[in-house]
């Protein structure tokens, strides 16, 4: 049984089928049926109930930030490979530090920190060199608004310090939701 709302559509399809079978007659113009159905043309967005591509996930409300590694870090102590780097991560009044990797200009950290996203929050990464006898040396600082990834998405970003002359730190941001 067919609903009354579908009757005009079925009638239009039947007429188009009959006209297509008659010599010298033409069926409806390309896209006419789609236009009649209110879809404009055949490339219009799917109607409710049609197979539509899923909407992208929402922006994350919580982020897991992993300080992965560093490369091309400068030797700040004047000896070959004696830089003892670590990274300070600051966001929305919170502060974390990675472990110190002794004697490396190509460190691998893998340290992770989880925090809630704050509208307009600024992410600051400070690349440091630990010094046993004097205060720690700041190799460089990078601050920028946090553009969080979408929920369930991980993004790897390279952060250059002093235009790359201070080395590059690779971080991964993974979008999550607040529990």
The top level CATH class name of the largest domain: Mainly Beta
Low-confidence stretches: 1-23
Mean pLDDT score = 80
What class, by secondary structure content?
mainly beta
Portion of residues in helices?
Answer: 10-25%
C-alpha-based Rg, rounded: 30 Å
The strand line-up of the biggest sheet is: 4-1-8-7
What is the string of SSEs from the N terminus onward? HHEEEEEEEE
Please give a handful of descriptors for the protein shown.
about 180 residues, mainly beta, Immunoglobulin-like, 2 domains, four-stranded antiparallel β-sheet, 8 strands, elongated
Written overview of the protein:
With 179 residues, the chain is mainly β. It has two domains: 1-51, no CATH class; 62-176, Immunoglobulin-like (Sandwich), CATH 2.60.40.150. The chain contains two helices and eight strands, in the order ααββββββββ. The protein has helices at residues 7-21, 32-36; strands at 62-71, 85-91, 94-97, 108-116, 122-129, 137-145, 154-160, 168-176. β2 and β3 (94-97) form a beta hairpin. The longest helix is centred in the first third of the chain and has 15 residues, at 7-21.
């Amino acid at each position: 049984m067919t609903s009354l709302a579908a009757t005009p559509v079925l009638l239009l399809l039947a007429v188009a089928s009959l006209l297509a079978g008659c010599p010298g007659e033409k069926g409806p113009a390309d896209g006419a049926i789609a236009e009649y159905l209110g879809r404009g043309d055949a490339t219009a967005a799917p109607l409710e109930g049609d197979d539509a591509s899923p909407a992208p996930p929402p922006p994350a409300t919580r982020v897991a930030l992993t300080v992965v590694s560093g490369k091309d870090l400068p030797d700040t102590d004047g000896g070959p490979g004696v830089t003892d780097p670590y990274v300070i991560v600051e966001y929305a009044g919170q502060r974390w530090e990675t472990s110190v990797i002794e004697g490396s200009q190509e460190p691998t950290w893998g340290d992770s920190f989880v925090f809630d996203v704050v509208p307009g929050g600024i992410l600051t990464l400070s690349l440091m060199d630990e010094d046993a006898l004097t205060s720690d040396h700041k190799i460089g600082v990078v601050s920028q608004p946090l553009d969080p990834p979408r929920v369930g998405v991980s993004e790897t970003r390279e952060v250059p310090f002093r235009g790359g002359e201070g080395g590059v730190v690779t971080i991964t941001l993974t979008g999550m939701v607040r529990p």
